[in-house]
Every structure is written in C-alpha cells, then in structure tokens.
Amino acid sequence: MPRSLGILPAFGFILLAASAHGGASPKQVSDSWTNPGTKWVYQTETEIYELLVTTAEQKGDTRVLHLEQSQDGKLTMSDNWGISSEGICRTSLTGIAGDPAAFLVKFSYKPGEKWTARADLKGDVTLTQSFTAREFEIVKVPAGTFHAIHVEFLTEATGERTVGAEYWFAPDAGIVKMRVQKGDGIVTHELKSFTPGKE
Predict the structure, then answer these.
(1) Which of 140, 154, 171 is nearest to 26 (CA)?
(2) Does residue 34 or residue 187 have the better pLDDT?
(3) What are the residue boundaries of the structural domains of the chain, listed by start?
(4) CA neighbours within 13 Å on the CB side: how many for 155?
(5) pLDDT at 98 over 70
(6) Which comes out higher in pLDDT, residue 87 or 176?
C-alpha cells in the first residue's frame, strides 16, 4: 500500500499559527500540543498515520518542536516547527529549510487576509504558496468538535501544475482537518484522535 503524504509533506514548506477572533497571543496556542509526547492520529478514506512531538526546546523567544510522522510503525517524514510571538513557523521539512516569513495563519490573523510563501527545493525547483484566511468554523471530525481557523492555499512548483488545498486549525489541538487536491480528486485528512503531551 502506498504511504500517505500526510500532514507534514502535504503542506510543503509553510508556517502554522493559531489565533482567536481579532488576533491572538502566544498563550492562546494551547500548551497541550506543544509538549513532547503529543500525538495526533489522522485518517483518510484508505489510510491511518501518526504525528508525534518528539522534543521541544526554548531558543530565545521561540519554542522549537521536532515532529515525526509515521505509518504502519515506519518513519515517513520529520519536521521542525518554531512557536514565537509572531506565530508558528515551519522551520524545516526533512532537513530542507522553509521560508521564515511565510505565515499560514498569523497571530494578527484576519479573515480575508492573503499572503505568500516561497522555498527553494532540491534540483532548482522553487515552491510558491499563496494563502487566504477564511472565517472561524465549527468542524466535526472523529476526534471531536473544534472551533477552527479555515485557510485555503495554492501550491505551485517550478514546471508543475498548481495544486489546491485547505485546512482547519484549532488553537487547542492543531490541525484537525485538511483537504488536498490529488490528481483529479480530493483527499480528506481528519483527526482521528489527539493525545496531549506533558512538559
């Protein structure tokens, strides 16, 4: 069975942040998912995979998380996220650096706001992503019901067609749902379970 792209690579090189209406502060991102041992289990129509926070350390005003994605007990991807007063930054994906200015959702989040992100990949490939913030929504997934930010984005790589996606991000649980274009169809990823870590 082919392995799921999952939450980490499906975003490419992006930044994640959570907010409440009218903006947010770092304290509005729940500690429940920023500690080691935090585990998300996601499901699509055909697959189940896990995302785990393995380490967390403070570097200045930024809390850096290392995450690993696995499926069927095998590591499929690793990632680093940095949480600062500005938002949550994806700093690398399997060792390749991301764009430090490319916020998916800023702490100054406003519905209707648009922004872009860029990253240079291997083989002279440039990845460009365009984001649009939507309203907060009530989202029901197998793990429960969440009040989440809805963000749409388009990904364009050099020489490749543009791919559309959208995700829902809950400040108290992280990514709870994502829909990604794959070929002529859409793959939906939903949070199946969420286990907070401990400091």
Answers:
(1) 171
(2) 187
(3) 7-195
(4) 19
(5) no
(6) 176
